């Protein structure tokens, strides 16, 4: 019986495997190309026909990215801005999410809807006034010029994720805490937050990724070389007539690693975030 | 004995009222606390998003002049918008943004759903597959744009090698309008289809299994099963994915900025690119703000027409 079923399904399973094979190759071939090109000798980047496997392997591009193009500064800038914004988002967002999930406030639905709509506005919508405001108060080319907007733009989505997570937590422990006379702030800090770690991870991964990859604000607000983040730095490597692809890809591989690890380790959190309500790219 | 009883019956209403009063007071205190918890976030969000969005409307209706360190607003004017309406560049950018959004989102959703259906059938290794699918999504858009620019490069790009290897000659990709638009769509589809697939897959896994068993017992074919059962059940998930992708694509900036610079000519100039160029290359903040406002308007129209989906989002969590 079992055998017969298997042979009956054999063709079917092959089709699935074939499809999966196509998907895997089309997703990973460009990534292969990115990594492999970063390992070519700088002169081999423009070879025609291209080298499909670098010969010889070379780390010259990596060396160039750090020594000639000052990539380490961009990396540090990105880290500072991203980490600061993520911490702020998680701190403010978990408080707000707790309030919106558990405390009896009026107008919660309106707040949630407004936040959802705001989280979807394109960056260009705020760039003109934000640029003029920052220019007037002298914030252009500073870390806070990005930390503040990144916090504001990622808060709505984080609040969404966290509120939904808090709603799913059992109320018993909170009530025990309340009966024992713990203050709401204490309940939030020592009862709610420890239970909500997975939700915090999800919101954290999303905020981190969004800040790490943001381009338009970083490009317009922090244009000077010493405050550029990775995306801006990479986009402005070279000149329109001489694009140093090897260096760009070496820097890219270094830039992708933190996010790649984060997404791989927390992939369950990411998927739950994508489905916990709001979805953002 | 009697006395105590009356005492009790007398006491009950007052203590009930007292406890109700206490509870009400408690509720009010808790609500006040809730506001104290939420206000910092709302303040930050309001100051850095809602205020600027409204302010950009004012900018778009003024003569904006940049001075040494600040800026000044001239009087109220519709001039910026009339510049837009009479500019063929703006009309093209608007049409391009809408067209680009519709085509790429359509392809992404169809492909993404197909991939999700495939993945669901996969017996093992779904975790690593998921991680692989999330990789393009997590890559910085600027990087994927540089990568695709290298792939489509005109003299040594690998895509040209592939085309000539299968006997299709040496086509131009980024150097002429239509191929450039298609190339840009391919880069976008590569980056976001896996993301759509992950969302749809997550929705697919949560569907009730017994419906499918019943349909299988009734002898439904796979095709019928998809259109009659899977798709209708999946529709809310797909609707959300479509909505978020559409709104995101309306603001597309990073990809054309790096991949094509909005060209050749103005062929891949989206609204965001046009606004950026007006403000930061030509330093015209009035018309630039008007372009930004038109992009915002597009998103707002999108949001309003999907209001039902949004409302269901708010309620689904409760």
From TrEMBL, chain A:
Localization: Cell membrane
All copies of domain ABC transmembrane type-1, residue ranges: 75-266
Chain ranges passing through the membrane: 12-35, 74-98, 110-131, 143-166, 187-210, 243-266
One GO cellular component term noted in the UniProt record for this chain: plasma membrane
Keywords, sorted A to Z: Cell membrane, Membrane, Transmembrane, Transmembrane helix, Transport
GO biological process per UniProt: transmembrane transport
Pfam families: BPD_transp_1 (PF00528)
Stored InterPro entries: BP-dep_ABC_trans_perm, MetI-like, MetI-like_sf
Membrane topology, as annotated: Multi-pass membrane protein
Membership in a protein family: Belongs to the binding-protein-dependent transport system permease family.
PANTHER family xrefs: INNER MEMBRANE ABC TRANSPORTER PERMEASE PROTEIN YCJP (PTHR32243:SF18), MALTOSE TRANSPORT SYSTEM PERMEASE-RELATED (PTHR32243)
The protein's name: Trehalose transport system permease protein SugB
Origin species: Acidithrix ferrooxidans
Origin organism lineage: Bacteria, Bacillati, Actinomycetota, Acidimicrobiia, Acidimicrobiales
UniProtKB/TrEMBL annotation, chain B:
InterPro entries: MetI-like, MetI-like_sf
Main location per the UniProt record: membrane
UniProtKB keywords: Cell membrane, Membrane, Transmembrane, Transmembrane helix, Transport
Highest taxon, organism lineage: Bacteria
Membrane topology listed for this record: Multi-pass membrane protein
GO biological processes: transmembrane transport
Subcellular location: Cell membrane
Pfam hit, one: BPD_transp_1
Domain ABC transmembrane type-1: 94-308
GO cellular component assignments: plasma membrane
TM region positions: 42-61, 92-118, 130-151, 193-212, 233-253, 289-310
SUPFAM superfamilies: MetI-like (SSF161098)
Similarity annotation: Belongs to the binding-protein-dependent transport system permease family.
Name of protein: Trehalose transport system permease protein SugA
Gene source species: Acidithrix ferrooxidans
Lineage, opening ranks: Bacteria, Bacillati, Actinomycetota, Acidimicrobiia, Acidimicrobiales
Gene that encodes the chain: sugA1
């Amino acid at each position: 019986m079992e055998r017969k079923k298997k042979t009956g399904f054999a063709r079917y399973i092959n089709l699935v495997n074939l499809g999966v094979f196509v998907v895997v190759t089309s997703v990973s071939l460009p990534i292969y190309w990115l990594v492999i090109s970063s390992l070519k000798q700088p002169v081999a980047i423009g070879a025609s026909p291209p080298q499909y496997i670098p010969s010889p392997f070379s780390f010259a591009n990596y060396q160039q990215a750090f020594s000639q193009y000052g990539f380490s500064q961009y990396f540090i800038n990105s880290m500072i801005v991203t980490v600061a914004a993520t911490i702020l988002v998680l701190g403010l967002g978990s408080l707000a999410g707790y309030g919106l999930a558990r405390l009896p406030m009026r107008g919660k639905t309106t707040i949630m809807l407004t936040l959802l709509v705001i989280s979807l506005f394109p960056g260009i919508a705020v760039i003109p006034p934000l640029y003029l405001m920052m220019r007037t108060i002298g914030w252009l080319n500073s870390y806070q010029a990005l930390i503040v907007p990144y916090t504001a733009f990622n808060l709505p989505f984080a609040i969404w994720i966290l509120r939904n997570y808090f709603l799913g937590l059992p109320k018993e422990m909170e009530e025990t805490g309340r009966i024992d006379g713990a203050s709401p702030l204490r309940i939030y800090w020592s009862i709610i937050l420890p239970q909500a770690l997975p939700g915090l991870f999800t919101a954290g991964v999303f905020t981190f990724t969004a800040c790490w990859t943001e381009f338009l604000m970083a490009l317009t607000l922090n244009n000077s070389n010493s405050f550029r983040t990775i995306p801006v730095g990479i986009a402005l490597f070279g000149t329109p007539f001489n694009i140093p692809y090897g260096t760009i890809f070496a820097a890219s591989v270094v830039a992708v690693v933190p996010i790649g690890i984060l997404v791989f380790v927390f992939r369950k959190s990411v998927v739950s975030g994508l489905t916990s309500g709001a979805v953002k790219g | 004995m009697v006395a105590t009883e009356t005492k009790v019956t007398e006491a009950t209403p007052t203590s009930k009222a007292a406890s109700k009063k206490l509870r009400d007071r408690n509720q009010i205190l808790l609500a006040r606390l809730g506001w104290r918890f939420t206000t910092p976030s709302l303040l930050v969000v309001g100051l850095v998003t809602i205020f600027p969005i409204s302010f950009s409307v004012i900018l778009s209706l003024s003569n904006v002049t940049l001075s040494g360190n600040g800026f000044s607003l001239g009087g109220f004017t519709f001039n910026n918008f009339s510049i837009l309406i009479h500019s063929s560049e703006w009309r093209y950018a608007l049409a391009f943004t809408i067209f680009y959004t519709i085509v790429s989102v359509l392809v992404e959703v169809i492909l993404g759903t197909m991939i999700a259906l495939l993945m669901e059938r996969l017996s093992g290794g779904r975790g690593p597959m998921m991680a692989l699918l999330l990789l393009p999504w997590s890559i910085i858009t600027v990087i994927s744009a540089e990568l695709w620019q290298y792939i489509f490069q005109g003299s040594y790009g690998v895509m040209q090698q592939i085309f000539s290897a299968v006997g299709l000659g040496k086509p131009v990709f980024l150097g002429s309008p239509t191929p450039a638009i298609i190339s840009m769509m391919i880069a976008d589809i590569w980056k976001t289809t896996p993301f759509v697939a992950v969302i749809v897959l997550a929705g697919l896994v949560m569907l009730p299994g017994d419906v499918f068993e019943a349909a299988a017992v009734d002898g439904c074919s796979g095709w019928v099963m998809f259109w009659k059962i899977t798709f209708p059940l999946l529709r809310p998930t797909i609707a959300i994915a479509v909505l978020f992708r559409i709104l995101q694509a309306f603001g597309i900036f990073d990809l054309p900025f790096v991949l094509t610079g909005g060209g050749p000519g103005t062929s891949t100039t989206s609204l965001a690119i046009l606004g950026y160029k007006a403000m930061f290359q030509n330093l015209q903040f009035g018309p630039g703000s008007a372009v930004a406002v038109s992009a915002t308007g597009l998103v707002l129209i999108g949001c309003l027409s999907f209001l039902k989906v949004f409302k269901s989002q708010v309620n689904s969590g409760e």
